[in-house]
Specification:
The protein contains 5 helices and no strands. It is mostly helical and 64 residues long. The longest helix has 10 residues, at 6-15. It has one domain. The two termini are 20 Å apart.
Length: 64
């Protein structure tokens, strides 16, 4: 996991390639549509989301 300071984040926002004005204009519908059309990151079902187990719990159960 990467750790960033507030200064790092500010620099990334200023000098990154993200069009933040465009991002801020997106509606919830726009975001949902983009997520549904992203074939590289399929959405998980409500069932799967509700049945995830914390990593620590799984590691303990598997003996890691």
């Amino acid at each position: 996991m990467a750790k960033y300071t507030q200064n790092d984040i500010n620099n990334l926002q200023k000098h990154g390639k993200t069009d933040w004005k465009r991002v801020e204009k997106q509606t919830d519908k726009d975001i949902e549509r983009a997520a549904l059309n992203d074939k590289d990151a399929p959405l998980i079902s409500d069932y799967d989301a509700n049945n995830f187990r914390p990593v620590e719990q799984m590691r303990h159960k598997l003996g890691f």
